[in-house]
Amino acid sequence: MVKMSHGPRSGSRMTMTKRLKDRGMPRINSYMRKFEVGEFVAVNIDPSVHKGMPFHNFQGFTGVIEGMQGRCYLLGIKVGGVKKTIIADPVHLRKIKV
Questions:
Q1: Is residue 4 a part of any domain in this protein?
Q2: By CB count within 10 A, which of 4, 5, 30, 94 is most buried?
């Protein structure tokens, strides 16, 4: 028997699949998005962009921008009672109104 792979994208077939109409690379505007510290954003992973992709368990979570690290943003998220900081490219983030 072959052992199951436990890579970073294992168990994410449905999460990392685009609809037929949405396939292909995202528009250039999504790469150029700007966020301010303290803004609320939702994690919406774009599977066609591998750079700056957060772990697939964070898909759909909401967090607060805490700062920048290179071209990516530091995002504070509460998971259960624990505060976690993830790094995500602006392609994988959507601004929300709270």
A1: no
A2: 30
